Amino acid sequence: xxxxxxxxxxxxxxxxxxxxxxxxxxxxxxxxxxxxxxxxxxxxxxxxxxxxxxxxxxxxxxxxxxxxxxxxxxxxxxxxxxxxxxxxxxxxxxxxxxxxxxxxxxxxxxxxxxxxxxxxxxxxxxxxxxxxxxxxxxxxxxxxxxxxxxxxxxxxxxxxxxxxxxxxxxxxxxxxxxxxxxxxxxxxxxxxxxxxxxxxxxxxxxxxxxxxxxxxxxxxxxxxxxxxxxxxxxxxxxxxxxxxxxxxxxxxxxxxxxxxxxxxxxxxxxxxxxxxxxxxxxxxxxxxxxxxxxxxxxxxxxxxxxxxxxxxxxxxxxxxxxxxxxxxxxxxxxxxxxxxxxxxxxxxxxxxxxxxxxxxxxxxxxxxxxxxxxxxxxxxxxxxxxxxxxxxxxxxxxxxxxxxxxxxxxxxxxxxxxxxxxxxxxxxxxxxxxxxxxxxxxxxxxxxxxxxxxxxxxxxxxxxxxxxxxxxx
Length: 473
Ligand code: BYC
Ligand code: FE
Ligand code: FE
Known about the structure:
Residues 321-343 are annotated as: Disordered. It is a single chain. This protein has a domain at 17-299 and 427-472: Orthogonal Bundle (Ribonucleotide Reductase, subunit A), CATH 1.10.620. It has 11 helices and 7 strands. It has helices spanning 21-41, 108-128, 139-166, 168-180, 202-223, 229-267, 280-295, 304-312, 356-381, 416-426, 430-439, and strands at 47-55, 64-69, 333-339, 345-351, 406-407, 413-414, 470-472. The strands form 3 sheets. Strands 2-1-7 form a 3-stranded antiparallel sheet. It has a two-stranded antiparallel ribbon with strand order 3-4. The protein has a two-stranded antiparallel ribbon with strand order 5-6. The chain is globular, with a radius of gyration of 23 Å. The structure holds benzoyl coenzyme A (BYC) and fe (iii) ion (2 copies). One fe (iii) ion binds next to helix 5 and helix 6.
């Protein structure tokens, strides 16, 4: 299996596409539809070039090349991580058998479903972010937005390749449908809830790339363990790109908190809205919203779907091979915290194999705590007496065991009236959203930055902050 990326081909790839004419033709037929989708649903801001990275190889070193590129001329392609001919299945009933290079007939429907759900989120996020270029706080941020968008577009290519190459006519139909559904569409919405929400401002963008792209990281991590080797290799390479999306989110929120802290000290008040900063309680409400909506992406706490995926070898656990158990989970148990109709919490013991969504969610929550810690450290270092918190996992949930209850950020089960009265303190209000929106004025001058966010401590690829990351018309 060649791993060099062929950029002379119409569709750059390292899967030797030219040796399979039928597949190549089918994908070349999908390509103009993708380009139409990008033109209609992708970023609205036109540019003369964005300083973007493009994958040049899939190896550990030097995989990215940086240059100014007009986004619609970006070379979206198909890149799979190196093939390991000795790879074996790490878990489930097929544990120890060689990884599959083809889709076993009995798992076809389930695998296709997982790939379609994954594929659906990628273009959805581009659609959610399409207007943000009009209000970027700096050229540096504008560049990062485009980078994330073109790579999410490439992640769509990654899933479409699998659908075309391994799932026949049905796969090709699903590939079309990925361009047909749209974020927030009343008739044909995206599959998962979080991908139909608006990403209406840049604070929401940083929160989305922190909390929602991070779900992507964990889901891709479990699909990287898949017995279906092409899916595994695709996800492994996607995860390399994903690291930058996390970075945009983490440092984006860092920079908002840093700027708010500066303004709080300068004016000696938490009420910094009048001074062009975002008050900390609004930031907390954004955290509450984006975190709780992202928790819904893990599915139900107990899931026979997840158990079947695991037993069949389709979807593993986070860092499956590093876990010290039998990788089959036939006798293990897990504890599940459950709200009860009398308003108290109970703990139930369940089979571990049924709790795999919960297991992954636990890994994700632990990771989210690291963000909260860093943002609190920024406040503490500025001598500000305020702490951010992650809300209770039951807060504001639409999926799973908590969805029928009203649960406050501190985990109290409350009645409808208490929830309605408290909501304005817990979730962004329309006043919050209007205020944050009012701050979103584009700053396109080289080296300048909006009032509500601090500049980054470093530029991209060794360039300074005041580099011309984007050429505008
Ligand atoms: N919304 O057994 P359950 C990313 C449905 S993000 C709507 O609990 P399961 C990215 C479910 O379909 C990563 N419906 O669910 C980030 C099922 O329906 P059926 C995306 C939902 O299957 C930022 C029923 O409820 N990748 O990459 O164990 C930017 C019972 O469900 C939802 C993946 O998600 C929901 N939230 O778990 C760009 C990986 N949750 O079958 C990109 C692939 C559940 O009874 N997907 N339902 O009709 C999966 O592994 C699983 O499908 C899920 C759900 C984890 C999503
Ligand atoms: Fe992605
Ligand atoms: Fe991403």
